[in-house]
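hey can u check if this looks right to u? its 210 residues, i copy pasted from the old doc so theres a chance i mangled smth
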Amino acid sequence: MSLFSGLSRPMKAAGLALVGVAVIAAVIGGITLTSGGGDSDTATPPGTTPTSSDGATQPSSPAPGSPSASMPPASSSAPPSSAPASSAPPASQPGQTGQPGQPGGDQQASHKWVTVRVYNNSTIQGLAEQAAKDFRASGWNVSEVKGYPGRLPETVAYYRPGTDEEAAAKALALEFGFRAEPRFKEIENIGPGVIVILTKDYKTNDKDGS
């Protein structure tokens, strides 16, 4: 029995037209599917790494706003310090020679301004003048040269304790090889200065060993 049996002629014509349209649509759809299957420009799903035509994986660029995209690479080494190292100025060492008032300085030179009186207590003529010459040659301030009566045992430089004469007498005695002592009663009232009373034990130029 025919699909269109029992229908009127106009209805049959309309049914045939619909069948024809369906056939044409089916044909067009098949052609479209056939042509679209070979398209190589397909979209890459999100989250997958795109590959090149030769199969190599291409590096992906970091997403905008991510820490690796916004932060510059950290420096591998700290910059060298440009501050110069401080050095302390060399401290002066005590005991250097030639500095008055310092240990090891020329103590004798610092006392040579004190007046020195030279007295001869020996029988050797000109002994006081020769000793005064020796003292002056070394820079001492000799102000008086004369004889001294009596008999003393040895050459001594006499001073008034607690005055500049004490240090000067000890320095002079050390330089020329005799002793230094406080003044005795008979010479206490003589004017200021170191009093050197010479005896026969004084050797002229004794400082130089002659």
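The two ends are 172 Å apart (CA to CA).
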